[in-house]
Amino acid sequence: MSPRLLLSILLSLPAFIVAVEPVSFSRDVLPILSDNCLSCHGQDEAHRKADLRLDTREGALAVIKPGQPHASDFISRILTENLDDLMPPPKSHKPRLTADQTATLQRWIQEGAPWGKHWAFEKPVQRPVKGHPVDHWVRARLSKEGLSPSPEAPPHTLLRRLSFDLTGLPPTPADVAAFSPPQFEETVDRLLASPHFGERMAMWWLDAARYADTDGFQADANRTNWPWRDYVVQSFNENKPFDQFTLEQFAGDLLPNATAEQKIATCFHRNHMTNGEGGRDKEESRVDYVIDRVNTTGTVWLGLTLGCTQCHTHKFDPITHADYYSLAAFFNSIDEDGRAGTNAKPYLSYQSPLSKRAVREAEALVAERTPLEKQARAAAESPFKNWLQDRWQSTKPSYKAWQVLHGQLESEEGTLLKQEKDGTVQASGPNRKQDDYRLIAPVKQSRITGLKLEVFPHASHTQGGLSRGASGEFILTDIKVQVRRRGSTQIRDIAVKNAVADAEFTPTDKKAAREYGSVKGTLDDDPRNGWTTRGAQQTQPHTAVFALAAPLSLDAEEELIFEMLHRSTQGDANIGRFRLSITDQPGPAVNSLEPAPLEQLASAGIKDLDQLPPALHDRLFAQFLEDYAPYQEAKTALERATAQLQEVKAGAGKLSVMVLAERKEPRETHILVRGVWDKHGDKVQQDVPAAIAAWPSGESRNRLGLARWITSKENPLTARVFVNHLWQMFFGYGLVRTPDDFGLQGERPTHPELLDWLAVDFMKHGWDVKHLIRQIVTSETYRQDSATSADLIERDPQNRLLARGPRFRLPSWMLRDAALTVSGLLNPALGGPPVRPYQPEGVWEENFMGRFTYQPSEGAAQYRRTLYAFWRRSIAPTFLFDSAQRRVCEVGMNRTNTPLQALTLLNDATMREAAETLAQQVLHKKITPEQRLNDLFEGVLSRSASSQELHILTRELDRALKHYQAHPQDAESYLRLPHNQVPPHEQAAYALVASLVLNLDEAITHE
User: Fold this and answer.
1) Which phi-psi region, left, alpha or beta, contains residue 283 (left: φ > 0; alpha: ψ -120 to 50)?
2) Torsion angle of C-alpha atoms 761, 764, 767, 773, degrees rounded to 10
3) Mind listing the pLDDT tens digit for each residue in 515-536?
């Protein structure tokens, strides 16, 4: 007798032989059907096999005889040894059902094959509890598993856990000193009332909302939607009921007498990427935006993979292809046309009241640096006199600032280039539509500060002009300055800061994507702009001067490469004749077309410096200042502060915020065949999936009604999904471990009764978010110690049973904010324009062909919370190594412990400054080294160091002190901050130890 036949006989014996719990269709049967049957026998007609449905009782009865598993074709096809009849079929690549699964299905049929819904589509029920509801259900599960809860975590761990969870920040020393476990609930209330609570909640919501400060895709243009981010912070801080929060983000514009803030709330559904690429069909993009809103709604509020139904009916969940486009109909008549950038209407003109503070901070920084620049300028006058005297005596009358380059010539496309004795290069031979020229030359000068390109007319050119192209005009799209070592193929790019020309074409259409004119267009690697002198005399030479970002010095084995790129979309405009020169003179010599100041001095013929013309004196002083480091440091600092002030003032004005608004004439909505944007099927009206919940009686079929349906008490999903989001925040994982999928393919809740209890309680209390959080964090379950045993790890490695406290890596944004907090650097201001924290140089420039340059914020703006960091979609803030990408909605938690994270925490400029600041704080205390180390340790970890820990810290401090005393240059290079009152070796040593403490596992972990 085969094992399967024996199993079948045993299961058919009378039920009184073995007392077992009845089979639950939702818990036991439906997951088996979902995993093994419904992809071929579900509601999707297009993929249904043998016209058999197993997603409905009526369909299943075709192969099931209730009470008679041995007579049911359903079971016989599972048990058969005939591979042609076996289900699932071998060609499906699904494994054969296990003995346990088969036994479950047989028992279910024996019990009458009772039907039911997937648990998530049943309305949650709040069953009676004793004591705290969280602890009631967790302990019931632990008791069933023969386990007990862990004891309460130590007070400092408990406070750190709570503070990070509710504010995203560590507790202050005053918080630690004032805390005691009996005051836990009062501490919860204090933290919930903190303005930083809204910031902590907003960081999570912004991930879900795919919020960013740019459009995405190729151009990735900036946008000014940040007032919506501030709306989110304010909403959480004022504890706006979640149903109202939902209503405003779906339909704030449709509310009677809607406020500007309620309209801004609808930016949630405009946070998607917008595509402005040239070959894109605008209508296709518009449809993409509508689809994104439906998918995001499904993920954030319903916990369903609605995106699966864009192309066909869902194979597992009771959502049809028509349901999807009925939901899309709510968003299909937004007054948009699929464009991006400044054309991505509808917009709301809005002036944020929270930007005034940012302006004041920026003005204060300018006011602080202005007198420093003046002082540095005044201090430069004395050394300038000595420099001027030396130059007057040593500069010969024949002095020339520019030296012509002679070298090897190359053409990418085969143009013949020949250099004449005076350095002029003439093009001949094939006249290509586009071409790149290269001049490769050795350099004798000790340094290079700039290059001069002269473009000449010639009789061989069209109409004696500047080019052999049809128009006689040239278009230079880009230039590159590079250095290569002889015999090597590796090159390094040299940054060019500025360009000026004697003639440029001024475009008539300022918004044109491809209009050539300005010489500065040659500096960005973008072939859609560049330099042309169209409109000027073609038979006259023209000149451009390029200033390097920093003086360049080459060694004897290196050579300079100057590359000229002619890649315009118009083509046929390559330069025909040119000459290249270099200079070692800074300042006015490379930022204007006038003769260099020293050339003017040489030709002035004055016999005494008192005869020096004032204008020339000023130009010479300007040149001197370019090389005078003390002044340049003060000047560039002021320039950065001034630029930041201008940027912030722009943010304080009227902004265009992307919002929702209905068009006057609604669009028709059609099912899109296979999800293709222009393949229209049947027409559909605004509606919702009936399998979830019915449309609320009396509600209008618009976005207001949709929001009310989502937060209806008849909707079984929304409250559960939101509870799960919060649980994931505090415990690292949700009660449902697939937060974006509550459907049949998602995981079942680890504690379903608890999830339902909290969901019902949340709705009963008016969708009160702070009440829900309080319910969770005041439980003994939340307060458990996260320490564990090997037995418990083996029994429950992922802590699904909640027999211990949560322990997981803190997200990177919390680590940055924590470092700012414990060091005292944090600027706690709320709201306002985005800021730019430190990040490695060149990241934006490399990614965007030089079109976007990243300049870190200065002053107080640098130390704002990470929530306010400028978020470019194509390259998210580089220190956020575990963040959502914010291109589409994400609700899961990403974690990493990669070497990249460790390198960032050790070397990121913010972490370095935090460590130095901590070192300065303890060094200014007149206490022993051991007391300093303990203060430092306690400031970061909220507890005193043990004797063993203190021994290790002392040992590392001694090692560092000895090294930096012996190698003072290492101390100077390690430090970023001024250290006038403390010896460099001492500050560097303490900073190194502070960095060690900031990187301890306890410092970067939610314990």
Assistant:
1) alpha
2) -30
3) 899 999 999 888 989 999 999 9
Q: Cβ contacts of residue 551 below 8 Å, gap of 6+? A: 447, 448, 449, 584, 586
- Helix (H/G/I), strand (E/B), else coil: 634: helix
Average pLDDT taken over every residue of the chain: 94
Q: What is the pLDDT of residues 179-196, one digit of tens each?
A: 999 999 999 999 999 999
Q: Which helix (H) or strand (E) holds 290?
A: helix 282-297
CA distances from 343 to 347, 888, 919 (A): 9, 21, 50
CB 22 within 8 A of CB 29: no
| Cβ atoms of 320 and 689 closer than 8 Å | yes
Q: Are residues 346 and 336 in contact, defined by beta-carbon separation less than 8 angstroms?
A: yes
CA distance 873 to 215: 7
pLDDT digits (tens, 9 = 90+) for 965-983: 999 999 999 999 887 788 9
Residue with tokens 């005869």: 611
128 vs 529: CA distance, rounded Å? 70
Residues making up the chain, counted from first to last: 1007
- Is 851 a residue whose pLDDT tops 80? no
Q: How far is it, in rounded angstroms, from Cα 231 to Cα 206?
A: 11
Partner residues linked to 481 by β-bridges: 494, 562
Distance CA 354, CA 357 (A): 6
> Within a 10 A sphere around the Cβ of 844, how many other Cβ atoms?
20
Taking the C-alpha atoms of residue 499 and residue 623, their distance in angstroms, rounded to an integer, is 17
Angle 624-629-631 from CA coordinates, rounded to 5°: 75
Smallest CA-to-CA distance from 939 within 974, 909, 958, 914 is with 914
CB-based contact 296:889 (threshold 8 Å): yes
Q: Which residues contact 874 (CB under 8 A, 6 or more apart)?
A: 214, 216, 220, 847, 848
How would you label 234-260 residue by residue, b for 16+ Cβ within 10 Å and e otherwise? bbbbebbebbbbbbbbbbbbbeeebeb
Residue 696 DSSP label: P
Would you say 134 and 735 are in contact if contact means Cβ atoms under 8 Å apart?
A: no
Amino acid found at 967: H
**Token representation of residue 353:** 């009241």
Judge whether 401 and 589 are in contact, CB under 8 Å.
Answer: yes
Q: What are phi and psi of 111, to 5 degrees?
A: -85, 5
Cβ atoms < 10 Å from Cβ of 19 = 6
CB-based contacts of 637: which residues, under 8 Å, 6+ apart?
Answer: 369, 372, 373, 858
Dihedral through CA 986, CA 989, CA 991, CA 997, nearest 10? -140
CA distances (Å), origin 832, targets 224, 358, 835: 11, 7, 9
Asked if residue 513 has pLDDT above 70, the reply is no
